[in-house]
Design brief:
With 674 residues, the chain is an alpha/beta fold. The protein contains 20 helices and 27 strands. It is globular and about 75 Å long. Bound molecules: flavin-adenine dinucleotide, NADP nicotinamide-adenine-dinucleotide phosphate (NAP) and iron/sulfur cluster (SF4). GO terms for molecular function: FMN binding; iron-sulfur cluster binding; metal ion binding; oxidoreductase activity.
Length: 674
């Protein structure tokens, strides 16, 4: 096969059916699965990705019975009515040329309701509900329910099912000695622990016949104490194959694991070698997953390893046209997922509808539409941070004539600082994407140009996306030469000494602390990352865990906040714990309930609490201020004085609790309305 990405874009013949290429859209719960009224939205969400060229789509998880619900009344596939409703989804996907599997997920002890069941009555550390241990009859009934679910999926027009055996859900709970203490035929020896998933695959194959895909999602490294051994994992892969599985998909880490597996600081392709080792062991195709987001990397994995398919879940949220762009050799137009989790997993975990920080249309395909305009207007966008970039590119893509101004010589605004934080290097992909799209849509970009109101009077629309500026708190001595703003610390415009106090423990305070405690070459290679998080090769240790050996901190850092209590509680649900653990591992001294008394030659003077007790001197070389931001909107009054009513978006509209998610969403929504 010739052309771009020849392996990635080549079909895969599964004997009874053929996938048009090697790209799998991995399972993601969007929140649209749970209610019948959202079926139309869900169908269009999948259809857009099918039209975008993906080969195989896997739905979010559907429970085979009510004990398996993730939440009370969550998504299930248990009746003929459910199956009929899903026909809208499967035909929309088939019209787009893709195949689709229904994921059958039994939550086991992760079920957030009192009906939960598991192998043994052992509570999960991340769930208040203690599960009931399934009886022998209960296990047999559960197998029947998985089989019924698969039959209903076939009736609904699905091309197959994915049986969810990883991430610590029910089947994983039977597999691991940590959670399965049974002594009957479903527990005890490794073979008995494997019996439930193997029986599910065997009985499903028997019921659905030979021409239906059964994909088994295998936990290839549990990352929990007393998880499965490597021999057990390989044995399960073989037995699933012999029982009738068509494909094996990769899963890494239980939800309760304290090893990050998908956040942006996890090195790209970190788990591919493990999937490849499983692929070497079986004859059916194995799917690689986690932290793969661009075609070149995916092609290289197919070239270098034994895996035959690449699963990408979040990258299909951020860019539904990912495959078409790869096929057209325009990968630089891909809006690359930056693994921030902010609008996808962080939403899912608080039961909000899933979307994407970079692509607010994700999950809103039917309501947020960027149609070509019938009346092109001239639009000035002031500020090329995330808000201005999203507004400019979206408006220009609709046919408006857009001019984008920024005072800096570069685009990105505060996001250009974010990409310099160790572990956030991939944020640079967003800036690459916008650079390409500004060019593609012929936006007139004027950098190094602090624009004034006079220049803006000739435009039909003016968008103020002038963002934010760091807040300088009124602490006595804040103008001392030892004090730096966070942009100065991040850009390295002034040197930072060996002992530092960081004022403010929000997202930026944590990021700056990460930067200051990391030495000169910030990008962790896989070996260093494994050492930091105590990750072993699954063949070396049960559960694939070892003792963490983090690199020593580059500086001694104090991280301070005025509010009493634990720091970092407002960080993202799925990434906050990673930041907190990382800062702790670097020996950072975290002080809360602090009053900043003054800064002088001897350092930062603080006290604690309302009574200003325990006066303390932190003998630091530098103080870095990360105390939030204020909006920049000085242009607004000048414009209004000239009778121009600007559209104000992003940080310029509101600095409090601003993030790139809100900035990009506002920019896109505004452009859709022009
Ligand atoms: P800004 O990014 O502030 O952009 C405003 C732009 O307007 C600037 O480029 C400025 O030069 C320009 N401008 C201002 N006045 C004028 C004028 N008169 N003429 C011309 N140009 C002008 N957010 C997240 O969601 N997730 C993260 O992980 C994350 N990490 C971060 C890490 C760091 C270290 C930092 C500093 C920020 C981080 N953020 C993160 C926050 C995110 O970058 C901001 O919320 C976002 O950049 C705000 O976008 P904006 O477009 O509103 O404003
Ligand atoms: P922030 O999260 O609001 O934190 C500001 C910090 O400064 C707080 O710790 C606050 O705590 C302190 N502070 C506020 N006013 C102060 C004052 N007058 N004097 C001293 N301290 C003061 O804002 P941020 O850290 O600047 O981040 C900006 C935005 O970027 C946030 O909304 C965040 O979501 C986003 N961001 C996200 C990530 C991410 O990983 N998702 C990373 C970076 C940034 P006290 O009041 O308790 O002192
Ligand atoms: Fe990727 Fe972040 Fe979008 Fe989720 S929100 S799909 S992690 S870019």
């Amino acid at each position: 096969m010739t052309g771009v990405y020849p392996k990635l874009l080549s079909p895969l013949d599964l004997g009874f059916t053929t996938l048009r290429n090697r790209v799998v859209m991995g399972s993601m719960h969007t929140g649209l699965e749970d209610r019948a009224r959202d079926t139309g939205r869900l169908a269009e969400y999948f259809a857009e990705r099918a039209r975008g060229g993906v080969g195989l789509i896997i739905t979010g998880g559907y429970a085979p019975n009510r004990t398996g619900w993730l939440l009370p009344f969550a998504a299930e596939m248990t009746t003929g009515a459910d199956a009929r409703r899903h026909r809208r989804i499967t035909s929309a996907v088939h019209d787009g040329g893709a195949k689709i599997l229904l994921q059958v997920l039994h939550a086991g002890r992760y079920a957030y309701h009192p009906l939960s069941v598991s192998a043994s009555a052992i509570k999960a550390p991340i769930n208040p509900f203690r599960p009931r241990a399934l009886s022998d009859r209960g296990v047999v009934k559960t197998i029947d329910d998985f089989v019924r679910c698969a039959l209903l999926a076939r009736e609904a027009g699905y091309d197959g099912v994915e049986i969810m055996g990883s991430e610590g859900y029910l089947l994983n709970q039977f597999l691991s000695p940590a959670t399965n203490k049974r002594t009957d035929r479903w527990g005890g020896s490794p073979r008995h622990r494997r019996r439930l998933p193997v029986e599910i695959v065997r009985r499903t194959r028997e019921a659905v016949g030979p021409d239906f895909i059964i994909d088994y999602r295998l936990s290839m490294a549990d990352y929990v104490e007393n998880g499965q051994s490597w021999q057990e994992i390989l044995a399960l892969a073989s037995e699933a194959q012999d029982a009738g599985a068509t494909l094996i998909n990769s899963g890494f880490g239980w939800h309760e694991a304290r090893v990050p597996t998908i956040v942006t600081s996890v090195p790209s392709g970190a788990f591919v070698d493990i999937s490849s080792a499983v692929a070497e062991h079986v004859d059916i195709p194995v799917v690689a997953s986690n932290r793969i987001n661009m075609p070149e990397a995916a092609e290289q994995i197919l070239e270098d390893t034994h895996v035959q398919l690449i699963s990408m879940a979040r990258p299909m949220l951020s860019d539904p046209d990912w495959v078409n762009k790869a096929a057209a050799d325009t990968a630089d137009e891909i809006n690359t997922c930056i693994a921030c989790n902010q609008a996808c997993l962080d939403h899912a975990f608080v039961h909000k509808k899933v979307s994407c920080l970079l692509n607010p249309r994700a999950g809103r395909e039917t309501s947020l539409v960027l149609e070509p305009t019938r009346a092109a207007r001239s639009v000035a966008v002031v500020g090329a941070g995330p808000a201005g970039l999203a507004a400019a590119v979206s408006a220009a893509s609709r046919g408006h004539r857009v001019t984008l101004f920024d005072a800096n010589e570069f685009i990105g605004g505060q996001f250009d600082l974010a990409r310099r934080i160790p572990g956030k290097e991939e944020f640079a992909e967003t800036i690459r994407y916008y650079t390409t799209m500004l060019n593609k849509h012929a936006v007139d970009v004027r950098l190094g140009s602090r624009v004034g109101a006079e220049e803006l009077t000739t435009f039909d629309d003016v968008v103020l996306a002038t963002g934010v500026t760091p807040r300088l708190p009124s602490i006595p001595g804040v103008d001392h030469p030892m004090v730096l703003t966070y942009p100065e610390a991040i850009y390295g415009t002034r040197p930072v000494g060996a002992r530092v106090a960081v004022i403010g423990a929000g997202g930026i305070g944590f990021d700056v602390t990460e930067l200051l405690t990391t030495d000169e070459s910030p990008t962790l290679n896989l070996k260093e990352w494994k050492a930091e998080w105590g990750v072993a090769d699954p063949a070396e240790a049960r559960g694939a865990l070892t003792k963490p050996l983090p690199a020593p901190p580059a500086r001694e850092v104090y991280l301070l906040q005025r509010t009493a209590g634990r720091q970092g509680t407002k960080l993202g649900k799925t990434s906050g714990w990673v930041h907190r653990a990382s800062v702790k591992a670097k020996g950072v001294q975290q002080l809360s309930g602090v009053n900043y008394e003054r800064i002088d030659d001897s350092g930062l003077h603080i006290s604690f609490g309302e009574k200003h007790s325990r006066p303390t001197l932190l003998e630091v070389d530098n103080v870095v201020i990360c105390a939030g931001q204020d909006s920049v909107r000085d242009l607004e009054d000048e414009l209004r004085a000239r009778g121009i009513r600007p559209h104000v978006i992003g940080g310029a509209a509101l600095a409090a609790e601003l993030d790139a998610k809100r900035a990009i969403k506002q920019g896109t929504e505004l452009a859709a309305s022009l």
